[in-house]
Amino acid sequence: MIETDSDGDVCVVTLDRPDHRNALTPAALDDLESAVDGADAPVVLLGGAGAAFCAGADLDAVADLGDREAAEAFARRGQRVAATLAESESVVVAGVDGAARGGGVELALACDVRVATPEATFAEPGAAIGLLGAWGGTVRLPEVVGLGEAMDIALSGRVLDAEEALRTGLVSRVVDDPRAVATEIAGNDPAALRTIKERLRDDGDRAEREGREAEAFADLHADYER
After folding, report:
1. pLDDT digit string (tens) for 100-128?
2. Could you point out which of 32, 108, 128, 165 has its C-alpha 20 to 30 Å from the C-alpha of 154?
């Protein structure tokens, strides 16, 4: 279900269940968490096999959850995987090629950089089936695209193509080959990449963040060579 391949300074993690549009079962979520946690490359590229990026949660698995406790545990499991992507020491790039739906969008939202191919599409269809994006979707979506756009996307369930995803800020680039973006980022200094990611994701008090930024600069400067 999850394939991992090292390509120089890029670790490629592929959701590999193309006959199910790479929908994620509970076991697959655990495998994805392990794959990202175990990556030691400066950059991780997350992608999907076949014609889809990720259809989100496997709906058969969702139907089999049984009770409220199991449903909440499944949501927290997905949140944990999303947190692993966000908190990885590697820069994590979501390379969305084809459909990203529900949990697939949420995993992409947790990544540091999101790029799409021209064939990529995005949607949060939870409202149509009486559910919601619970892998951090209602938290991260407004943080990324703003509250107004997030309300529109999540409440309508409409499909965004790559250009609209770019316009809303859901992705930062539309490219033919997401691996090229991952390779471009991996060409930078690994320590600087880790530090910049950590600083940009710091959501504390502004003055404290600026203090940590200055300290981080001094730490990097110790190894700086002109």
Report:
1. 999 999 999 999 999 999 999 999 999 99
2. 32
Question: DSSP state, 157?
Answer: -
Same-domain pairing of 157 and 208: no
DSSP state of 158: P
- What are the DSSP calls for 198-218, one per residue? HHHT--S-HHHHHHHHHHHHH
pLDDT, residue 66, reads 85
Evaluate whether residue 17 is within a structural domain: yes
Predicted confidence (pLDDT) per residue in 26-62, tens digit: 999 999 999 999 999 999 999 999 999 999 999 999 9
- The parent domain of residue 124 ranges over 2-183
Flag whether 67 is in a domain: yes
Kindly report the length of the chain.
226
Q: How confident is the model at residue 186 (pLDDT cuts 50, 70, 90)?
A: very high
Residues 133 and 156: their CA atoms lie apart, in Å, by 13
How far is the C-alpha of 37 from the C-alpha of 19, rounded, in Å? Answer: 26
Q: What CA–CA distance (Å, rounded) separates 179 from 188? A: 15
Token pair in block for residue 86? 């966000």
Give me the residue label for tokens 């199910």: 20
Name the 3-class secondary structure at 98: coil
- From the list 164, 129, 154, the residue with the least C-alpha distance to 57 is 129
Q: Is residue 226 part of a domain?
A: no
Picking from 133, 174, 131, 162, the residue whose alpha carbon sits closest to that of residue 150 is: 133
